[in-house]
């Protein structure tokens, strides 16, 4: 634990080889974790998940604001950012969503290079399958919307899907009539995304406090003035709340109510097997989506448990449904064992779209409501939140995602973001 | 897996039920402000702790009833028919 500036560690083959000569003892700590926090910061960010860390990075990189502290009650990336199934895509319906998620996808494409950290972004493509006529109509509608929004999309018939994805059930109960492919979609290493942003922010001088819980918010004359933490009170000019499923809890500290409900979403991985699935597959009708990790595990996601929960575990019926869905698509996987199961708490908004805005309390910003789909949005969420905090105005891409839409009725009802988890 | 005691059918597995969210939600008068209407439509208590909610015995008797449940560990403290004294007090 040190706040002294450290030499940038370079993660490349050469560095690894060089380390081979000295037992890899040349690596330096990558986080800027002070023993004691400063008494005042320009910006305090609550939540050391992807969105909080990306916000810290872009505050420094895009706006030169570095007197920033990220406060995380557990460990960085230990929330949903480290619990998700890592699917990245921008196949949304409305132009507002396409602009947001495609900004994110574009940033992801250059992220390993920009942050000098291999986030293992693999654009292996993302398929959405249709199993009935109505499903096919929805895919046509989505494909047209995506193309109009300038997002890459390919529609394939059943034979086309089978030609591209070997091993699909030849005699399924739910016939595979077609599929919508977003070729630029894929997966990334989720911990690496959190760590890449944390390191970049640290290098710029941002402080990161782990194992520190925010327990209260102080305000004066309608302005946020300080956060109370398990390590004392820290005053600041602005606060960003990026705590995913715990948004309501933190908002209540400021006396605010949010249009959010917290639900558990679970995921599973199988034991590792040889490479057999080189893309991401989502099948709404069978209630499942899956991909294969670089380690060989099948990474499987399901739907939400549709009752409020802060317990980070999912329920058995959803797990059974997901297993049945996998076997319907690939009967040969029925012999695989589940290796792990876990859940995260998602902050779900009625229109399945996030909230990016300054609240009624001046200086108190929210980056939340990503529900089951905010991993893909981390670069954009951080970029846009940093813009709002630094300039005092919402970025044009973030504008439609403000609090105002709940009273004006201008909801962005993204069915493509809900129903099944991504 | 939750075990939920339907007031009519007794304890049954979670898979037979569907959660209908917060209980009760009272619709404001139609001449209310946009803020009040937005709160009615979108704002829920979402507590980390005891939560009053409605469940539907969808694959059983088909009745709706009130449940008081902890959102931290899913312990069900009480189930009661809608409109009963127990529901009103909960
Ligand atoms: C099982 C599962 C699968 C998913 N799959 C996908 C997917 O494939 N693709 C996709 O795009 N999205 C997916 N998601 C959603 C995605 O993971 C989230 O939307 C995203 O990670 C949210 O990032 P975040 O930074 O807002 O939150 P988090 O990563 O959860 O970070 C919030 C942090 O805030 C901290 N915190 C909370 N309260 C306090 C407090 N009082 N004081 C200090 N710190 C606090 C928490 O400890 C946590 O670390 C999935 C989610 C789950 C659970
Ligand atoms: Zn019943």
Outline the structure in words.
The complex is a heterodimer of chains A (422) and B (90). Chain A is α/β, with parallel strands linked by helices and 422 residues long. Chain A is 28% helix and 25% strand. Chain A has helices at residues 13-20, 50-63, 95-109, 111-115, 133-148, 158-164, 190-203, 247-253, 316-329, 378-391, 404-408; strands at 40-46, 68-71, 87-88, 126-130, 154-157, 178-182, 186-187, 207-209, 214-220, 223-229, 232-241, 261-270, 280-283, 288-292, 298-308, 338-348, 355-358, 364-368. In chain A, strand 9 (214-220) and strand 10 form a beta hairpin. The radius of gyration of chain A is 22 Å and the shape is globular. Chain B is 16% helix and 37% strand. With 90 residues, chain B is of the alpha+beta class. Chain B has a four-stranded antiparallel β-sheet, with no helix packed on it. In chain B, strands 1-2 form a two-stranded antiparallel ribbon. The longest helix of chain B is centred in the middle third of the chain and has 9 residues, at 34-42. Chain A binds chain B through residues 246, 248-249, 257-262, 306-311, 315-317, 349-350, 406-408, and chain B through 1-2, 13-15, 18-19, 21, 34-35, 37-39, 41-44, 46-48, 51, 53, 69, 71-74. The complex binds flavin-adenine dinucleotide and zinc ion. Zinc ion binds next to loops of chain B.
Q: List low-confidence stretches of chain A.
A: 1-6
Oligomer: heterodimer
Biggest pleated sheet of chain A? 8 strands, mixed
Distance between the termini of chain B: 24 Å
Q: Name the biggest interface.
A: A-B, 23 and 27 residues
Q: What's the SSE pattern of chain A?
A: HEHEEHHEHEHEEHEEEEHEEEEHEEEHH
Helix-strand pattern of chain B: EEEHEEEH
Beta-strand residue percentage of chain A: 25-35%
Helix share of residues of chain B?
10-25%
Biggest beta-sheet profile of chain B: 4 strands, antiparallel
The poorly predicted ranges of chain B are: none
Average pLDDT score of chain B: 94
Estimate the helix proportion of chain A, in percent: 25-40%
Number of helices of chain A: 11
Radius of gyration of CA atoms of chain A, rounded to a whole number = 22 Å
The general outline of chain B is globular
Mean pLDDT of chain A: 94
**Widest sheet: strand ordering of chain B:** 3-4-5-6
Which molecules other than protein and nucleic acid are bound?
A: flavin-adenine dinucleotide, zinc ion
């Amino acid at each position: 634990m040190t706040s002294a500036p450290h030499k940038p560690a370079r993660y490349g083959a050469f560095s690894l080889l060089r380390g081979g000569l000295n037992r890899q003892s040349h690596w330096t700590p990558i986080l800027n974790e002070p023993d004691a926090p400063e008494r005042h910061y320009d910006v305090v960010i609550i939540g050391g998940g992807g969105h909080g860390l990306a916000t810290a990075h872009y505050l420094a990189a895009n706006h030169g604001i570095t007197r920033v502290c990220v406060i995380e009650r557990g460990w960085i990336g230990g929330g949903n950012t480290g619990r998700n199934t890592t699917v990245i895509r921008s196949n949304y319906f409305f132009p507002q969503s396409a602009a947001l998620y495609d900004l994110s996808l574009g940033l992801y494409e250059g992220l390993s290079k920009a942050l000098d950290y291999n986030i293992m972004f693999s654009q292996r493509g993302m398929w959405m399958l249709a199993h009935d006529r109505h499903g096919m109509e929805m895919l046509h509608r989505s494909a047209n919307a995506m193309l109009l929004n300038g997002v890459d999309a390919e529609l394939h018939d059943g034979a086309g899907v089978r030609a591209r994805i070997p091993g699909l059930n030849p005699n399924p109960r739910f016939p595979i009539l077609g599929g919508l492919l977003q070729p630029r979609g894929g997966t990334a290493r989720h911990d690496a995304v959190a760590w890449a942003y944390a390191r970049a922010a640290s290098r710029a001088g941002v402080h990161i406090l782990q194992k520190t819980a925010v327990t209260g918010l102080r305000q004066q004359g309608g302005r946020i003035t300080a956060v109370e933490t398990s390590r004392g009170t820290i005053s600041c000019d602005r606060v960003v709340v990026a705590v995913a499923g715990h948004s309501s809890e933190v908002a209540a500290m400021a006396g605010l109510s949010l249009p959010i409900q917290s639900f558990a979403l679970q995921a599973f991985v199988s034991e590792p097997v040889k490479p057999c699935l080189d893309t991401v597959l989502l099948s709404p009708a069978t209630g499942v989506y899956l991909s294969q990790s670089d380690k060989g595990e099948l990474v499987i996601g399901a739907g939400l448990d549709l009752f409020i929960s802060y317990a980070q575990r999912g329920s058995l019926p959803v797990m059974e449904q997901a297993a049945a869905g996998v076997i319907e698509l690939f009967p040969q996987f029925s012999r695989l064992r589940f290796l792990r199961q876990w859940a995260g708490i998602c902050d779900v908004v009625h229109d399945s779209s996030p909230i990016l805005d300054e609240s009624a309390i001046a200086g108190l910003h929210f980056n939340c409501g990503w529900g089951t789909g905010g991993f893909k949005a981390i670069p954009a969420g951080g970029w846009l939140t940093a813009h709002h905090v630094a300039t005092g105005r919402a970025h044009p891409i973030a504008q439609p995602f403000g609090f105002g839409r709940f009273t004006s009725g201008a909801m962005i009802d993204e069915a493509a973001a809900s129903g099944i988890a991504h | 897996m939750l075990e939920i005691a339907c007031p009519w059918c007794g304890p049954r597995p979670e898979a037979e039920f569907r959660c209908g969210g917060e209980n009760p939600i009272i619709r404001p008068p139609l001449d209310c402000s946009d803020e009040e209407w937005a709160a009615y439509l979108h704002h829920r208590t979402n507590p980390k702790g005891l939560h009053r909610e409605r469940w539907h015995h969808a694959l059983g008797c088909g009745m709706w009833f009130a449940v008081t449940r902890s959102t931290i560990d899913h312990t069900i403290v009480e189930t009661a028919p809608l409109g009963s004294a127990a529901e009103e007090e909960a």
